[in-house]
Design a protein that fits this description.
CATH topology of the largest domain: TIM Barrel
Largest sheet: 8 strands, mixed
Structural class: alpha/beta
Distance between the termini: 11 Å
Shape: elongated
Helix content: 25-40%
Number of strands: 18
Radius of gyration: 24 Å
Oligomer: single chain
CATH architecture of the largest domain: Alpha-Beta Barrel
Strand content: 25-35%
Order of helices and strands: EHEHEHEHEHEHEHEHEHEEEEEEEHEE
Number of domains: 2
CATH superfamily of the largest domain: Alanine racemase
Length: 373
C-alpha cells in the first residue's frame, strides 16, 4: 500500500461525536464540530454530523469550500476572523463568523448587503488565552456598534481557552463569560443566542457537576477526533483515541553506533571505518519526516524509541526487534502531528467505514492493517 498514509476510522469519529453530543446535551450544551485539523475532509465532517453535532466550524475558507463542494449543506462557521480577501467567499459559504475587529465586521456587512443577505457575528472575547479576543471592558461599546452595523446581526459571544496559553478554563472563567452575556444584552437590548465556552479544553469542566450558567455551546475538534483533553494530554473517558493512525515505510534497517562517532580510524588495507565510544544498536530509517508531520510527536509501537527526524527521514531505535526494509510501521498521532499530516500533499489519506460522495453516504469495507507488516 502507498505510504506514508493516514488511516481514518470514520466509525470511531462518529461514535466520539455521539458520546460527546449525548453527554453534553444532558448539561444543556450543543456541540459544533471543528474540522480544521483535518483540512475540512468531507468524510470526517460527515462522520461528525452523523454523530449529532449541530454544525461545523473551520478556520480556513479553502476547507469550508472543500466541504461545500462535497455536498455538505450543514451550517459552517468561520472561527478565524475573515481576511479582507475572503469576504465574498465567507458570505457564500458561511452564515456565521467569529470576529474581534470592527473594521472587519463593517466589511462583512458591506459584502452581505451586496449579496442581499445578513451575516451573523459571534464576538470572541479575551479571557486569558492571549491570542484573539476583545477585552471584556471594551465589549459593551463594541457590541453596540455591531448591532448598529447594517448587513450583520449579533449572534453571540465566545471565548478561547488553552489555544495559545495551555491553561484550562475554570468555573470562575465560565461564570464570568455568562455574566458578560447578560452584560451585552443589557447594553444592546438584544438576546444573545450563542454563548460558546471554548473548545476541547473545556470538556472536563462541561462534564463536571457545576452550574453551566449561560454557556450553551462548545466547539470541539481534538476531543472528537482524538478523544484527548488537550491540556492534560489524557484520554477523555469513554472516547476512542485511535481513530487516526499514520503508516511509514522502513527504507533502512541496520545496527549503528549507540552514540555519535568520535573520529575516523586510520585507513587499514584501503578501508575506512567510524570509531564510536559505545556499542551498536538496531535502528530503522522511515520514509517520513518533518515535511510530512510532527515526527517527534508520533506515538511509536511499544519497544521502539524516537531518535530524530529531518525533512524527509525519521530515525527510530528498534532495540532488539527485526524490522525488515520494505515493511511498514504504524504510529499514533497527537493533534500537532495529525494537523500537519492531513495538510501534507505527499501523505495519502485513506478512510474506512461510511464515506460520503457529493453528500451521498456509502459503506466501505474496512481494510485489515497491522502494526508491522
Amino acid at each position: 500500500m502507498t505510504s506514508p498514509r493516514v488511516e481514518i476510522d470514520l466509525r470511531k469519529i462518529e461514535e466520539n461525536a455521539q458520546s460527546l453530543v449525548s453527554r453534553l446535551g444532558v448539561r444543556g450544551l450543543s456541540v459544533t464540530g471543528v474540522t480544521k485539523a483535518v483540512c475540512g475532509h468531507p468524510d470526517v465532517a460527515r462522520a461528525m454530523l452523523d454523530g449529532g453535532v449541530v454544525g461545523l466550524a473551520d478556520a480556513r475558507i479553502k476547507n469550508v469550500a472543500r466541504m461545500r463542494t462535497a455536498g455538505i449543506g450543514s451550517p459552517i462557521s468561520m472561527i478565524r476572523a475573515p481576511m479582507a480577501s475572503e469576504m465574498e467567499d465567507v458570505m457564500k459559504f458561511c452564515a456565521v463568523s467569529y470576529n474581534t475587529e470592527l473594521d472587519t465586521i463593517l466589511k462583512l456587512g458591506s459584502a452581505a448587503r451586496k449579496q442581499g443577505t445578513r451575516h451573523n457575528i459571534i464576538l470572541m472575547i479575551e479571557m486569558g488565552d492571549m491570542r484573539d479576543g476583545i477585552m471584556p471592558e471594551d465589549l459593551d461599546d463594541f457590541a453596540a456598534r455591531v448591532v448598529a452595523t447594517p448587513g450583520v446581526a449579533l449572534k453571540g459571544i465566545a471565548a478561547n481557552f488553552a489555544c495559545l496559553a495551555n491553561i484550562a478554563p475554570t468555573a470562575g472563567d465560565m461564570a464570568m463569560l455568562s455574566r458578560l452575556a447578560y452584560q451585552v444584552e443589557c447594553a444592546c437590548g438584544r438576546f444573545v443566542d450563542v454563548v460558546s465556552g471554548g473548545g476541547s479544553a473545556s470538556v472536563p469542566w462541561a462534564l463536571g457537576e457545576g452550574a453551566i450558567g449561560r454557556i450553551n455551546n462548545l466547539r470541539l475538534g481534538e476531543a472528537i477526533l482524538l478523544g484527548i483533553d488537550p491540556v492534560s494530554g489524557q484520554p477523555i473517558n469513554g472516547l476512542h483515541t485511535d481513530a487516526f493512525a499514520i503508516f511509514a515505510e522502513v527504507i533502512e534497517a541496520r545496527p549503528k553506533p549507540s552514540s555519535l562517532p568520535i573520529r575516523s580510524s586510520a585507513p587499514k588495507h584501503g578501508k575506512h571505518e567510524l570509531v564510536s565510544n559505545g556499542g551498536r544498536a538496531n535502528r530503522a530509517v522511515l520514509a517520513i519526516g518533518q515535511q510530512d508531520t510532527d515526527a517527534g510527536s508520533l506515538s511509536l509501537p511499544s519497544g521502539f524509541g524516537f531518535i530524530g527526524a529531518t525533512s524527509d527521514h525519521t530515525v527510530v531505535d528498534t532495540a532488539k526487534s527485526t524490522v525488515p526494509v520494505g515493511s511498514e510501521m504504524k504510529m499514533g498521532l497527537n493533534y500537532s502531528a495529525l494537523m500537519r499530516a492531513m495538510s501534507a500533499p505527499d501523505v495519502v489519506k485513506r478512510v474506512h467505514g461510511k464515506q460520503s460522495l457529493k453528500g451521498i453516504a456509502k459503506d466501505r469495507k474496512t481494510q485489515r492493517v497491522l502494526t508491522l507488516v
